[in-house]
Amino acid sequence: FERYFFIAETFLKCSAAEYSPLPDDTIRVVNSGKNIITGSNSSVVGSARVDPNAGNPAKLLVTFGGMSDGPYWVVKTDYDQYSIVYSCTNTLFNRARLEILWILTRDRTGITEDVRSDLYQHLRQIGLDPSKLNPTTQTGC
User: Fold this and answer.
1) Which residues form the Lipocalin/cytosolic fatty-acid binding domain (predicted)?
2) In-domain check, residue 141
3) CB count, 10 Å around CB of 119?
4) Are strands 82-91 and 96-105 parallel, antiparallel or unpaired?
5) Residue 45 and residue 85: Cα distance in Å, rounded?
6) Exposed e or buried b for every residue in 40-71, given b needs 16+ CB within 10 A?
7) What does the pLDDT look like over 111-141, one tens digit per residue?
8) In whole numbers, what is the pLDDT of the chain averaged over residues?
9) Tell me, what CATH number does 131's domain have?
10) Domain residues for 95?
């Protein structure tokens, strides 16, 4: 539905994430989308697991294609319509910070304005800036 700028998703529309529990207590993650220039579909498969050092089952570590684990924190969810997911990592030998925030929705049409307003208020309360969110294109899928 909406996200902070993330270079890996710049030229994608119809972004989707699918999560499936696995027998070893990890989660299979499939992120997919359609390239807005070429029209080709692409996907990447990864895995997530609860961060053993976090003491909170909503704080996950996710990895794609052999890259190092990255934080994937479920900040808020109603378990039905939406989830807010946040990730923040230091990059370039701790000289830069990569901060990503997604509002994920089950329905491509998104959420109501009332729900969106409540989520934005929650983000402000926890120190995240909703004005940096950009809509994801979910038409022509």
Assistant:
1) 15-137
2) no
3) 22
4) antiparallel
5) 18
6) eeeeeebbbbbbeeeeeeebbbbbeeeeebbb
7) 999 999 999 999 999 999 999 999 999 999 9
8) 94
9) 2.40.128.20
10) 2-135
